[in-house]
Amino acid sequence: MSMSTGTKTQRKSHHGNARKESIVHAAVGAFSAHGYDATSTREIAKRAGIEQGLLTYHFPNKQALWFAATDHIFDQLNIHIEGVLTELRELTEKERARQGIQEVVRYLSTHPELFRFLVDAGNRSDEMMHWLVDTHLKPRFDFMINEGVVNIRGLNPAMAGHAFFALAGATSLIFAVAPTCKRLTGIDATQQAAIDNHAEFIANLMVP
Amino acid sequence: MSMSTGTKTQRKSHHGNARKESIVHAAVGAFSAHGYDATSTREIAKRAGIEQGLLTYHFPNKQALWFAATDHIFDQLNIHIEGVLTELRELTEKERARQGIQEVVRYLSTHPELFRFLVDAGNRSDEMMHWLVDTHLKPRFDFMINEGVVNIRGLNPAMAGHAFFALAGATSLIFAVAPTCKRLTGIDATQQAAIDNHAEFIANLMVP
DNA sequence: GTCTATAATTAGATAGAC
DNA sequence: GTCTATCTAATTATAGAC
């Protein structure tokens, strides 16, 4: 069954707006690297190869840039997950959980911005955090409860929230602080071998 | 056996310097809430109840404030862990690992700044990240390899780095984004019941 | 030791030329 | 659409009175 999430939250346009898309891409990179407050609109403009004054033609203000960037990264995630679910449809429940988790680990390894946006906005108590939860996290969380890891481990449903954040943190931290991981352990978390090792480790942890 | 880490990295002074300590405390709170780049020295001064100009009398610049804040939170962690190890000395290896993990989860639940400092500095590639790894993370990581979870699960030593970041992420994320967790799941990660649930969940995950 | 004042830089947003 | 120029406010660091 398809998820209740989809690409319908997408604000960005259909076709022909390459400039706007390049700005969103630049905003994702900058917000991911420095967080919302520490990112300047001038850096976003520089990454997009334009002047700062042009940003306000395409987006009314800095916060609108963040909403568009967040929409984009979660829309891409949802598209990926729907594809994975289709591929794994024929497997047993346990194998689907194991391979689904490994596939998500691999995706998050190349998209550390998802974790960084979550941590950056997750401790705020303002409109940005509320919107992030209601629009993007809630559908993902509800989906995990209905089809995900909880069934497999025979988990008490009251513990689903603990499983969600444990899985998200266990999966993503190593990729979000890859330079630190390299210096601390010698593991280069950007290399495919390390990614596969982490995917297998997390799958063994969650679905033994 | 005691760890190789201790309180010897402590830069802050011995006695009678209450003002300096209150500034460090304020810096921990501010850097934890907003990250290094997005924290203003004026906010730190305000939290400490002093004027901004006074900061440079006690610390030469903003970065020195961050080093002092980081020293402080890791020194406190190390003190706590040494105490826990002493308490658990008589237990079997497996029980010591289980209860040690639960005790660290409880500590991190009330000290989310450790995770936030790690994520905030962890993706930099500058002096701050290098110093954080060499001074504070490396001793903790080496200790975990020698006495920690790796032995218990019969883990391939090459996977120790994966276990370290998986454990750190699984443990800390829920507390670092507590407002998001509350809105998403209804779980108030600041309440003792939720903290104990998470501690037990993580212990079951890592030492089944 | 603590404060006030300020210098030099950078921030987000806006106005207007083309 | 895109750029240049600028406004107001906030930033870190410093100088100097007390």
What would you note in describing this structure?
The structure is a homodimer of 208-residue chains. Helix content of chain A is 73%, strand content 0%. The first copy, chain A, has 208 residues and is an all-alpha fold. The first copy, chain A, has 2 domains: 65 residues, Arc Repressor Mutant, subunit A (Orthogonal Bundle); 118 residues. In chain A, α1 packs across α4 and α5 packs antiparallel against α11. The longest helix of chain A has 26 residues. Chain A is globular. Chain A starts with 17 loop residues before the first helix and ends with a helix. The interface between A and B is large, with 59 and 59 residues. Chain A binds a DNA duplex (18 and 18 nucleotides) through α3.
**What does the main sheet of chain A amount to?**
none
Radius of gyration of chain A: 18 Å
Q: Give the proportion of residues in helices of chain A.
A: over 70%
Shape of chain A: globular
Number of strand elements of chain A: 0
Short overview:
The structure is a homodimer of 208-residue chains. By secondary structure, the first copy, chain A, is mainly α. The first copy, chain A, folds into 2 domains: 1-65, Arc Repressor Mutant, subunit A (Orthogonal Bundle); 91-208.
List the helices and strands and how they pair.
2 copies of one chain form a homodimer.
Chain A: H1 18-34, H2 41-48, H3 52-58, H4 62-87, H5 93-109, H6 113-122, H7 127-147, H8 149-153, H9 160-176, H10 178-185, H11 192-206
Helix pairs in contact in A: 1-2, 1-4, 1-6, 4-5, 5-11
Chain A binds a DNA duplex (18 and 18 nucleotides) through residues 19, 40-42, 50-58, 61-62.
